[in-house]
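Not sure how to ask, but would you mind making up any protein sequence you like and the tokens describing how it folds?
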Amino acid sequence: MTVQNAHLRLGVNIDHVATVRNARGGADPDPVRAALLVQNAGGDGITLHLREDRRHIRDADLDAVMAAVTLPVNLEMAATSEMSRIALSHRPHAVCIVPERREERTTEGGLNVLADEDRLRDFIAPLREARARVSLFIAPDEAQVEAAARAGAQVVELHVGAYAEHCAAREDAARDGELRKLFAAAALAQELGLEVHAGHGLNFANVGPIAAIPEVVELNIGHFLIGEALFVGLESAIREMRHQMNLARL
């Protein structure tokens, strides 16, 4: 039986604070300051994506954020030997393994766990031994959910990007089809003993139906909140997102 989690956690990805800093160089704006604002505004976690090319968050940012905040830190990373070494040395609360290509502007899809199951199982094992909570970022596909469970993940983060795109394009039938996939994948994940998160492309207008999926316990949102912060401030943006999430759980 599905039990809806009363408090839906909000993880805030602060990568694009670093993107703005890196556009000019120097130290401003400071990702640590953003992380502290997230903490003060009632966020439940900080997400950082340390990419191979260090296009936004850098190694020193990870060190500084982990030292500054008491919130759990979720390190997004590719399944490479370099990133494994960094995760094992820093020991963040959680590790979310994502696909990564140098030419992409953002993470464009979910991991193909089915095609890489054995390698991912070997990659996950030492992270779990180090007590990191390991998540796999996957499409809402039931075969991928099953593969994630077999590979040893404790969490799946469902990629909701296709849903978000159909919302933006006002393609109602396609949007509803994606929602059905998300509901089915979340239900299966919980049945298999996996914790369920969701993220990618969420904003005030489209977050409600995702927040209402009963098995989902955490949303990870970054780009929209950092963009909205330019107009209303980061704390206000986070509080409004929390409000929208709470409405969906009434």
